[in-house]
Amino acid sequence: MNAAMPAALHQHTIRLLAQLLQFAHPADATVQQYFRKNTALGSRDRARVADAVFGCLRHLRRVRCAAGAGADAAALVEAWVSGAWQALDPAALTLAERADLPDWLAARWPWAGDEAGAVAEAFKHGAPLDLRVNIAKAKRDAVQAALAAAGIETVAGRWAPNALRVLGKPALQRHPLMVDGSIEVQDEGSQLLGHLLGARRGEQIVDFCAGAGGKSLQIGAQMRNSGRVHAFDVSAGRLSELAQRAKRAGLANIQPMALRDEQDPRLSRLAGKVDRVLVDAPCSGLGTLRRNPDLKWRQGPEQLAEKAVLQGAILTAASRLVKPGGVLVYATCSMMAEENEAVVDAFVAEHPEFSLEPAVPALAKQGIALPDSGAPSLRLDPLHHDTDGFFAARLVRCA
Known about the structure:
This protein is α/β, with parallel strands linked by helices. It contains 18 helices and 12 strands. It has helices at about 5-20, 25-35, 45-60, 60-65, 75-80, 95-100, 105-110, 115-125, 140-150, 175-180, 190-195, 215-220, 235-240, 240-250, 295-300, 300-320, 340-350, 360-365; strands at about 130-135, 155, 165, 185, 205, 230-235, 255-260, 275-280, 320-330, 355, 380, 390-395. The strands form 2 sheets. Strands 5, 6, 7, 8, 9, 10, 11 and 12 form an 8-stranded mixed sheet that branches. Helix 16 (about 300-320) packs parallel to helix 17 (about 340-350).
């Protein structure tokens, strides 16, 4: 028993990890439910337990190597808190074990050589907290100064012009700037996807897979509250708060609508009329491993194949809305070629009226200077960009 963790917390950690290792539900939801049932745990104790179980999930291959074959949750927690997993000889481990990846994912890892391990390591660190300043209500410098006056330290984003990175873990949910819609939580990489779309004042925009609407809010602000942003999603629940969020953000140009599916007949009224369409497609989410380390254990190659079929269908349906000369951006929070380049290549082969436009130069026109690998698509990762993992392709329909 590690003296650094009291016995009661040690037992909570074991019980919670045992639940997480069933991989029946997303880890964050399982952790929240556990803490709701164990109200005697204070905030510091909850933080220690959460840090331990998420640490085990991030480094599960090496923790299991240290704990031994067939180890139960108790043995895994012991290997974690004792640090035994750190004492392993790297030379005795496979690449997948050193990278803490399942074998199938290590075999498909998009990076090679020393870079493969370095990127995998970057994905094992917890993600920072990024904010997007709502330019419909405030300027970044003023927001940064106001947060500093409240004791909240931030630094300007490395890439996105309206991004702020929060230092430390302050409570922000009830801060006046959050309450009045002047700031929103949004990863800097996600903000870059909104900029890649390049929405302009007065245009008709479709956010085809809007989710809760974070990018819709960003796009609406970029358009200076003009034009129209159609925020579509198949989940009415996810869209349910967008109208209120838009009002709070001072935006009147956002129109949420829940779709039956990507073939919803109501989409026909927009066919060939939309200036720009963003498809932030449902995906494996493997680019968010810093936040959701359980995703690499809860999925396999068969899920990627299923996602790719759906992604292709959504991209095709969304493309019908784009007017001649319009822009279509396909994006995922995944690094996997099956969900990214393969989907785009298949789409372009079937739709010659669309052509790939290099993404990095398109961002450069907005003053966003990303390193240019020469690839037409945009790829972001935590090692090279300090963001979540993202992919985006910018497609233009011939006039």
